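Figure 6 in text form: structure in, sequence out.
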């Protein structure tokens, strides 16, 4: 009888380098920045995994993917098995592999990362997810259980919840206000980070599970919660409407033409093809001197989009320093590599109107870091007599979002003082038939955290509706 060889990790191997397009070339169009791992890359990276007995990486994953399990399948070149292992916990691996902040989650917990470079879990997940068409394994669902669930919103939380419920035999309908699915995955994240065909493929996969999508359906206008329960026969409702109401700077001149909020700017570009005007009838001002306000991933997306729309210069203005920016390090690196200039420690005072009536400049003041505020970061404090101006024919504010009001949909669900829905850790609200999750509960957060909330809510609904 032959001896079974014990797996020995290739600990000394360096982390596999991503296959990125040259910065100068990719900044001119919307091609993906990273073309992903090849099979050879994936196997080499999988061989770095320590195969820990107590995998801390799984503790860092909000949806609890069996990370050592799918990496083991990659080592064995069992691509179908790797995909099946991931999809047992996460139905959107191609999305999560591209946009999740792995460095703060699964990879942040990786033992290898404590003294060197963590295993590239995100790249491996993305690569396996992208093999779905090649593998071609049909989804498996339990028999129908006779229960109907309505989901409002087809963003990451809504579709994660929908997929989990469909696999458990629920009749699931997702109501989406836009004409296409994906929510922020479609309108908020640029093509160069998350191609729309990837989102569509994941939505198509949910339809294969039996999930029905009703587009152009504005909840609260076409129907309310009582109508869904009493007239349409739904047994439960999951609210995943996001928190997409933009915050504004509240400075003079912010209403000038050429000043956008990031939501509008990115939606026009990502969803409505403004970059191809007049072939598509959505215009957008293509500025030469663009200034973006903010330091998160959305600000990076807006700045990098402006470059691709033909800007000569793009400046990202931030009240703190680069070290305090909440954006992913990879996004900051890519932005700088492509030519985005980061202007630290400045605060806008006024947008100035040009002769054509559009914004032509922005007045800023210098800041310095004082004592820590409630977030734990040092509070920016104005420097006296430090005002100055820079040219600006397009300005984009990306300083966060708030909850959209939706009381007409479900008036008996309790909200907090910020207009977000009050829900427990399982997504249950004050209405026993209504669950909620994602940004409408937590405020603006990550895709994977929203998906984790959808998964928890699905488990809670299953327990409540089936009496388990």
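Output sequence:
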């Amino acid at each position: 009888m032959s001896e079974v060889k014990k797996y020995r990790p290739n600990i000394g191997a360096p982390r596999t380098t991503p296959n990125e397009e040259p910065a100068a070339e990719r900044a001119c169009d919307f091609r993906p920045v990273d073309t992903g791992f090849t099979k050879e890359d994936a196997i080499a990276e999988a061989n770095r995994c320590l195969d820990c007995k107590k995998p801390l990486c799984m503790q860092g994953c909000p949806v609890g993917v069996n990370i050592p399990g799918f990496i083991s399948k990659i080592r064995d070149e069992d691509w179908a098995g790797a995909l099946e292992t991931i999809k047992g916990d996460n139905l959107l691996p191609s999305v999560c592999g591209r946009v999740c902040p792995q460095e703060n989650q699964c990879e942040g917990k990786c033992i290898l990362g404590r003294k060197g470079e963590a295993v590239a879990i995100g790249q491996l997940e993305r690569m396996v997810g992208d093999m779905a068409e090649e593998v071609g394994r049909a989804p498996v669902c339990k028999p129908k259980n006779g229960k109907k669930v309505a989901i409002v919103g087809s963003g990451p939380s809504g579709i994660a919840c929908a997929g989990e419920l469909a696999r458990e035999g629920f009749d699931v309908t997702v109501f989406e206000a836009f004409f296409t699915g994906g929510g922020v995955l479609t309108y908020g994240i640029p093509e160069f980070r998350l191609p729309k065909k990837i989102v569509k493929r994941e939505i198509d996969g949910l339809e294969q599970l039996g999930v029905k999508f009703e587009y152009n359906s504005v909840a609260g206008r076409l129907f309310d919660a009582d109508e869904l329960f009493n007239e349409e026969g739904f047994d439960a409702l999951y609210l995943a409407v996001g928190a997409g109401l933009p915050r504004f700077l509240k400075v003079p001149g912010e209403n000038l033409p050429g000043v956008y909020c990031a939501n509008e700017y990115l939606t026009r570009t990502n969803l409505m093809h403004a970059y191809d005007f007049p072939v598509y009838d959505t215009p957008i001002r293509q500025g030469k001197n663009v200034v973006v306000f903010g330091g998160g991933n959305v600000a990076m997306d807006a700045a990098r989009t402006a470059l691709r729309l033909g800007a000569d210069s793009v400046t990202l203005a931030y009240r703190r320093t680069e070290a305090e920016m909440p954006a992913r390090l990879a996004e900051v690196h890519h932005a700088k590599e492509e030519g985005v200039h980061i202007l630290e420690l400045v605060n806008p005072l006024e947008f100035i109107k040009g002769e054509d009536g559009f914004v032509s400049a922005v007045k800023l003041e210098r800041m310095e870091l004082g004592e820590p505020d409630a977030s734990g970061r040092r509070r920016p404090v104005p420097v006296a007599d430090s005002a100055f101006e820079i040219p600006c024919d397009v300005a984009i504010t990306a300083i966060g979002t708030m909850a959209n009001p939706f009381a007409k949909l479900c008036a008996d669900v309790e909200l907090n003082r910020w207009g977000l829905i009050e829900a427990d850790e399982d997504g249950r609200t004050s209405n026993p038939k209504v669950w909620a999750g994602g940004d409408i509960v937590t405020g603006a957060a990550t895709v994977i955290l929203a998906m984790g909330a959808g998964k928890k809510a699905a488990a809670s609904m299953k327990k409540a509706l089936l009496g388990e």
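Caption detail: The longest strand covers residues 359-372.
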